[in-house]
Design a protein that fits this description.
The protein has 130 residues and is α/β, with parallel strands linked by helices. It is built from five helices and six strands. 36% of the residues lie in helices and 23% in strands.
């Protein structure tokens, strides 16, 4: 799902980038973080990782510029973040977080089959209305 979001200038490379936050740092979330941080991607930069147990999950292989949080509002309310990657699964709180992100103009990436099966149409409508 995609909601329009303005590009953020990258002061280090002089080009526009999209700042990405990952919600969830299990098998899928850590793999996405690894791909985003270890490979060069024009226009995409991992900036935040949310997890309930930051002290247990914090990975030293991520760049020190990546901010860790156990407060999802740090991500949802941040105008700096353009894209939320939701990999926690389930209907709640994932649905609430996705709706909040879309309502604030963020794009959302999810593989949450349960949520999409139940609320996909309304989430698409919400994304289109932003």
């Amino acid at each position: 799902m995609k909601a329009p979001a303005p590009d953020s200038p990258d002061p280090h490379q002089g080009r526009n980038v999209r700042n990405v936050a990952i919600a969830g740092f299990g098998t899928v979330g850590s793999s996405v973080a690894n791909i985003l941080s270890q490979r060069a991607h024009d226009g995409i930069r991992l900036t935040h990782v949310y997890n309930r147990s930051v002290s247990r999950k914090r990975a030293d292989w991520l760049p020190s510029s990546v901010r860790w949080t156990n407060n999802i509002d740090d991500i949802l309310s941040s105008p700096e973040i353009d894209i939320l990657v939701e990999v926690i699964g389930g209907l709640d709180p994932a649905g609430t977080w996705i709706r909040s992100a879309l309502s604030s103009g963020k794009s959302v990436v999810t593989a949450n089959k349960q949520l999409i099966a139940r609320f996909g149409s309304s989430l698409i409508d919400l994304a289109a209305s932003m």
